[in-house]
Amino acid sequence: MIDFGFDKLMLIGGVALVVLGPERLPRVARTVGHLLGKAQRYVSDVKAEVNRSIELEELQKMKTQFQTAVNDVENTVRQEVDSAHQAIHSTWSDLSVEGGSSEAAMAASAPPPAYSHPGKNWRLKRGATPLWYKQRQGVRRHTQSGAARVARFRPPRRAS
Fold it and tell me: How far is CA 19 from the centre of its chain?
């Protein structure tokens, strides 16, 4: 790059002052400064765009590396699960062959039943709570309508 020192800039300014004259020099200097600013902004925009494209390429490379790593792990896990499933299935079938009777073999060859929720009833749990505990905790034991609840807490009538 061209190296301009202070002495060279002073020489260029003196020549410009002589050639252009003192009337037009400020306007020309302002125009040159404006053009240099535009050039610097353009160069910085180009640099930023190049940096963005480089970062995008790096991110895409990282994405592909991450994706291949994920696929490798997924394949490894899938192979391990399949091998474990095969081992369990072969053990299960060996146990069914050793069972002897055809009914036992049929029962042993069938896969184990799927898990089902025991279906416990929360009302039974509440029913097993002692009465004294319910009273202390303020749990209602009987259903009461709104009118009955109001009548319960209404002051008694006076006989006239």
Answer: 68
